[in-house]
Structure formats: C-alpha cells, structure tokens
Amino acid sequence: MKYRSILLFGAPGVGKGTQGKILGAIPHFFHCACGDVFRNLRADSPLARTFIDYSGRGQLVPDKPTIQLWKHFIENNTEIGRFHPKTDTLVLDGIPRNVAQAKILRNTLDVTAVFYMRTKDEESLVARMQRRAIKENRLDDANLSVIRDRLHVYENETKPVLKFYGRKLVHNINADQSPAKVLADILRHAAKQ
Ligand code: ADP
Q: Ligand 1: which residue has its CA nearest to atom 1?
C-alpha cells in the first residue's frame, strides 16, 4: 500500500514549515518535515553528526540514510498510532528533495498534489532564514554563504522534482501573501484529497 501524500514544495524559508504545522493539526493530515526529523535525532548518533556536517555546508544529506530515517519515522508513528496510513494524508515538507529520492519513493508514495510555494522576493527568504537562525537556533541559517549554498542546491537539485511529478499535480501558490491566505489557497485543493 502506498502512502497518500501531498508535497509542500518551495525554496528554503518560503514558509513550508508554517503551513505544514497548520495542516498537520487538521484531522487526517499528518505533517512530516524531513529537516525536523534530522534535528530531533540524538546529538551523539552517527547520523546526527552526518546531518550537521552536510546541513552546515548547505548540502543535502546522502539519499540512502535520509530515506531510511524517513521510513523509520513514518513506521514508528504508525506503530504508536499517530499516523494512520489507511485514512490519513501525509503532508511532506523537505522530502523528496531531489529526483533520486523521488525515484526511490516512487513505489512508497501516492503523490496527489504538489503545492509549489513561490515568492517574487528572494531577498525576503534570506532575511527570514537569518531571523529563524536566532529563533530556532539553526546553525545552517546563521551564515550568509551557507544560505546562498542552500538556495543553489534548491535550484539545481530540488527544483527538478517538479518536473518528475509533472504539471498536472503541481499547484502554484503565491507565498508572498499572509499565512492565512496561503493556507486558504492550499486548502482549496488539499481539502479535496
Ligand atoms: P529548509 O527548508 O530551510 O531548507 P530543512 O529543515 O527542510 O530546511 O532542511 C535543513 C537541512 O536538512 C537541509 O539543508 C539538508 O542538509 C537536510 N535535509 C532535510 N531534508 C533532506 C532530504 N530529504 N534529503 C537530504 N537532506 C535533507
């Protein structure tokens, strides 16, 4: 059985996490932010060290351990009764993050919609990330050159995922609106899932 899923897609700092948290509070939606799964690892575990190494340079963590960790997370949440694959829709944020991951997950995910959150104001992304660095104690947001590297990785490695899923699944969302309006635009389609 494949997991019914919708993807929150867009550049770092565009507001995926904000929307994901709200959507995840709606019954029958289960929010999974891949970056949060990494950040919640025990600091002394080998994968946490790998995560700090890659994310601290703005790079993606290698695909194999990423997918393995994500699968464990989903399976654990199923076991403890937080996620019900038969009735719930996964709200994925930060995964799949490149075409290789999308291919690995081809037989695992039934992606019904991709919400492509777009901004006309790239500089506001940088400002948001710098604010977040202080608020959420995120090392990868603290340094301007790492932020720039993350934006490059997004352009070169993550954006091609849109093409993988194809135009029919992709909904353009204007992320320059208030969070409530962004949510309304997402829900217009997501509520039908
Ligand atoms: P942002 O949305 O601001 O880029 P995330 O919290 O989603 O932040 O991700 C932070 C870091 O975690 C990424 O830069 C990357 O190093 C790592 N990461 C998160 N998800 C993945 C993934 N699916 N594959 C590889 N690396 C990931």
A: 12
pTM as predicted: 0.94
Best mutation site among 147, 150, 154 for ligand 1 pocket (most ligand atoms within 8 Å of CB): 150
What does the pLDDT look like over 63-80, one tens digit per residue? Answer: 999 999 999 999 999 999
Cα 110 to Cα 90: distance, rounded to the nearest angstrom = 10
Tokens for 109, please give them: 């995910």
| Domain at 15, CATH number | 3.40.50.300
Q: Is residue 143 part of a domain?
A: yes
| Mean pLDDT score, 8-14 | 96
The domain of 169 spans: 3-186
172 φψ region: left (φ > 0), alpha (ψ -120 to 50), beta (else) = beta
156-181: b (≥16 Cβ within 10 Å) or e? ebbbebbebbeeebbbebebeeeeee
